[in-house]
Design brief:
CATH class of chain A: Alpha Beta
Number of helices of chain A: 6
CATH architecture of chain A: 3-Layer(aba) Sandwich
Largest interface: A-B, 48 and 51 residues
CATH superfamily of the largest domain in chain B: Thiamin diphosphate (ThDP)-binding fold, Pyr/PP domains
CATH class of the largest domain in chain B: Alpha Beta
Shape of chain B: globular
Structural class of chain A: alpha/beta
Order of helices and strands of chain A: EHEEEHEEHHHH
Largest sheet of chain A: 6 strands, mixed
Distance between the termini of chain A: 27 Å
Structural class of chain B: alpha/beta
Strand content of chain A: 15-25%
CATH topology of chain A: Pyruvate-ferredoxin Oxidoreductase, domain 3
CATH superfamily of chain A: Pyruvate-ferredoxin oxidoreductase, PFOR, domain III
Radius of gyration of chain B: 27 Å
Shape of chain A: globular
Number of domains of chain B: 4
Oligomer: heterodimer
Distance between the termini of chain B: 59 Å
CATH architecture of the largest domain in chain B: 3-Layer(aba) Sandwich
Helix content of chain A: 25-40%
CATH topology of the largest domain in chain B: Rossmann fold
Strand order of the largest sheet of chain A: 2-3-1-4-5-6
Number of helices of chain B: 20
Helix content of chain B: 25-40%
């Protein structure tokens, strides 16, 4: 396949950005795509701004350039002004916010209050998966213009990561499904 | 294809090392190199290989242990971040002269930017100064391959070899084909040769001559020669790149459509740069642009100032990471294309890093400011550098310097007839790493300060590696543990007391006692001992009490400004503080911080 997709994931240290980018990278490999991702480590992880770049397809550089991201996933709304410049014209912003954020013209915005959903489900640490589930449902997966992978492929990648049948996996899958239900 | 797995760059380096038969590996954690050693231990278990894998007390010790294995006939590797290489530079320079009998790899990870370091220094310069060859991978996959190449190079010439990844290689994730494990089946056998292994200056001169000959030969070694990416007729211009900047450039060559007009070379071994390659470049091209991080190591070896552009000539920014946006502008200008319109992304700004909710360092710093409000606060390298947010960190220089700087401040002020309270902070891992010699020095010189050792039983900033005080090894096995109090007393310190900083009133009282001792009798040490909150969270500790803010909150901001817990959020509209339930650990230390008692445990209990 000749698909090429560039994704930027943004949040604060401790919100699970690294987990999300590795999960998506593994889903990409399972789908037969080459993948390159770039992570933030060290001091920034202590509650500071964390950003991951994910490039699916035939790339060499692990970094997404300004104006090149097809998709920007933001786990903390206050990061939108910092990272919206990554989006290409017509790119999609998925943001964890009670109301749609202002990302300027030529950007499609989808918002969901993933914090509230994750808290109400008793899994505040799974807010990352709630947002991912929402994104997969809202913009579609596996089809032209949508995510490079489907919700089913993400479920499979989660199962490989966390081991089928465990309580951790079922909590993760519930969080993903919660997001999917709100994005459908 | 089905065998391809996702690997972080550091994981890939580890796999490359273990696959090539590395038998001894040592490291001290530091971003961006920290994950290498723990991954080595994972691959050790996967492969079933017999190895010695250790978190050493510091980088110097780590290098000496691995180097010695390599002169005893076993393949060995040491990994560290670039400033760790400063600590290990003493044995490295000497080891280059003496050489090795089995493959020896020094993995030194640089941090252009810098993202998580004191400096953006280039380890390749230290390789050059040491006269050891250095390899510069552009991706996790290449880093994995070069680990094996590095061992081969090391054994072909009997020299230490440096593998120099950068943050963007260490912390990139890529789908890779993992190489099979190739056990070397070697036995340790040290062949005595005092004229070499204990060489005196007379022999050192001879060894230096031999090293120079080796370096000249390595500059012609085929396996690490530069690669021409787009073969074809020679043209006017060439771009020479190494490391991840090469990866950016290669991608941009395609996007900008300049592959048929400009030659692109990847340098794999920046030092020594292949001599024939230098001749080829100067014979073939009128203009050459060199793209590398972070010092002009390749550029300075191509001796033609009129045709070569790079960091030395100002054609490339002298400092900073070469992000792909910058490389795009450089290549566009070099190719005579219109410059891209968009400015570089606003990547800076945003919420600053802070100590975790429930972190006992916060209590430690809050208490220090209460006990010595007019003090000078030297500090050190670790999570607790973030005590700067709490106004309790005045200096950070390098590993261990908190102790010597505390002494230095005392001597300087005493000369001016001034008495100041000095309270230094250092983490447990940093104390073991480089804090002991300056503590001995301070005792001997009669320095007057309080040293607070922030003992959370973890090298937390880099991913919670064990410290010598924990009795846990790199593979989770039980090891001997060092008794911190005994160690401090053995340094000659007469006041050494331990407290839990989360019990704020008692801890502050102890600090005041220590200050009195310091003013009158000399160095006092307070060990502030409480496990890392992140370790406790992962382990799933006891059920925490919920914290509530009562209607008595006056909105004075004391807790948010002076205690700075991310779980205490100031609600501007309501002019009061609220608890962020997403992050609060319920540690309850803030109960002691509120001046009007508006922060309470929900069940109304106080400890």
């Amino acid at each position: 396949m000749s698909l090429e997709q560039q994704i930027v994931l943004s949040g604060l240290g401790g919100q699970g950005i690294l987990f999300l980018s590795r999960l998506l990278a593994e889903a990409a490999i399972a789908g037969g795509f080459p993948v390159l991702a770039s992570e933030t480590h060290g001091m920034a992880q202590r509650g500071g701004v964390v950003v991951s770049h994910l490039k699916v397809g035939g790339f060499d550089s692990p970094l997404v350039r300004t104006g090149r991201a097809d998709l920007l996933l933001v786990l903390k709304e206050e990061n939108v002004p910092l990272h919206r410049e990554f989006l290409t014209d017509g790119g999609v912003l998925i943001v964890n916010a009670a109301a749609p954020a202002d990302a300027g013209p030529r950007v499609r915005v989808h918002a969901v209050d993933a914090d509230a959903l994750a808290l109400s489900a008793g899994t505040p640490h799974a807010v990352n998966l709630v947002l991912l589930g929402f994104a997969l449902a809202r913009i579609g997966g596996g089809a032209a213009g949508g995510f490079f992978c489907t919700a089913g492929e993400v479920r499979e990648a989660l199962s490989r990561r966390q081991g089928a049948g465990g309580s951790r996996l079922s909590a993760s899958l519930s969080a993903l499904d919660l997001g999917i239900a709100h994005g459908t | 294809m089905s065998e391809r797995i996702l690997m972080q760059g550091n994981d890939a380096i580890a796999r490359g090392l273990v696959a090539a038969g590395c038998a001894v590996a040592a490291s001290y954690p530091g971003t961006p190199a920290s994950e290498i050693l723990s991954a080595i231990d994972r691959w050790r278990k996967t492969s079933g290989a017999t190895m010695h894998v250790e978190w050493a007390v510091n980088e110097k010790v780590a290098l000496e242990i691995a180097y010695t294995a390599a002169i005893a006939g076993l393949r060995a590797a040491v990994s560290m971040k670039q400033v760790g290489l400063n600590v290990a530079s003493d044995p490295l320079l000497s080891a280059a002269y003496l050489g090795v009998t089995a493959g020896f790899l020094v993995v030194s990870a640089d941090d252009p930017g810098p993202h998580s370091s004191q400096t953006e220094q280039d380890s390749r310069l230290l390789a050059m100064m040491s006269k050891v060859p250095v390899l510069d991978p552009a991706s996790p996959a290449q880093a994995m391959a070069l680990a094996g190449t590095g061992f081969d190079l090391s054994e072909a010439f009997g020299v230490p070899v440096m593998l120099r990844p950068t943050t963007r290689v260490c912390h990139a994730n890529q789908d890779v084909d993992a190489p099979p494990f190739r056990p070397q089946g070697r036995e340790a056998r040290f062949v005595k040769d005092p004229s070499r292994w204990a060489a005196t200056p007379v022999f050192r001169r001879v060894l230096h001559d031999r090293l120079a000959e080796k370096i000249a030969a390595i500059a012609a070694w085929p396996a690490t020669a530069p690669i021409r990416v787009n073969p074809g007729v020679s043209r006017e211009k060439a771009v020479v790149a190494s490391g991840v900047v090469f990866a950016h450039a290669r991608e941009l060559f395609g996007e900008l459509g300049i592959s048929d007009r400009i030659a692109l070379y990847q340098v794999i071994q920046p030092y020594p740069l292949h001599a024939a390659f230098i001749d080829h470049l100067l014979e073939s091209y009128a203009e050459i642009l060199v793209l590398e991080e972070s010092a002009p190591v390749i550029e300075m070896q191509i001796a033609d100032r009129h045709r070569v552009g790079g960091r030395m000539t100002g054609a490339v920014p002298v400092t900073g990471e070469l992000l792909p946006e910058i490389v795009e502008r450089l290549l566009s200008r070099f190719a005579g294309l219109p410059l891209p319109g968009r400015a570089a992304s606003a990547q800076g700004g945003g919420r600053r890093p802070t100590l975790c909710p429930g972190c006992a360092h916060r209590s430690s710093f809050y208490g220090i400011r209460k006990a010595a409000p007019e003090g000078i606060y030297p500090s050190d390298i670790g999570c607790y550098t973030l005590g700067i947010n709490l106004g309790a960190v005045d200096t950070v220089l390098c590993m261990g310097a908190a102790v010597s700087q505390a002494a230095g401040f005392d001597y300087a002020h005493r000369l001016s007839g001034k008495q100041v309270d000095i309270v230094a902070t250092i983490g447990d891992s940093t104390f073991y790493h480089a804090g002991i010699p300056p503590l001995i020095d301070a005792v001997v010189q009669g320095a007057r300060f309080v040293l607070v050792i922030l003992d959370n039983g973890s090298t937390a900033m880099t991913g919670n590696q064990p410290t010598p005080g924990t009795g846990i090894g790199a593979g989770g096995q039980t090891t001997a543990a060092v008794d911190m109090e005994g160690l401090v007393r053995a340094c000659g310190v007469r006041f050494c007391r331990t407290a839990n900083p989360d019990l704020l009133p008692e801890y502050i009282a102890l600090l005041k006692e220590a200050l009195v001792h310091a003013r009158e009798q000399g160095v006092a040490v307070v060990i502030a001992r409480q496990p890392c909150a992140m370790v406790a969270r992962i382990a799933g500790g006891k059920e925490a009490a919920a914290i509530v803010i009562t209607a008595e909150c006056t909105g004075c901001r004391h807790c948010v400004d002076r205690f700075e817990c991310p779980s205490l959020v100031f609600d501007e509209a309501a002019n009061r503080v609220r608890i962020d339930e997403m992050t609060c650990t319920g540690c309850g230390v803030c109960v002691h911080v509120c001046p009007v008692g508006a922060i309470r445990r929900s069940e109304g209990e106080d400890r």
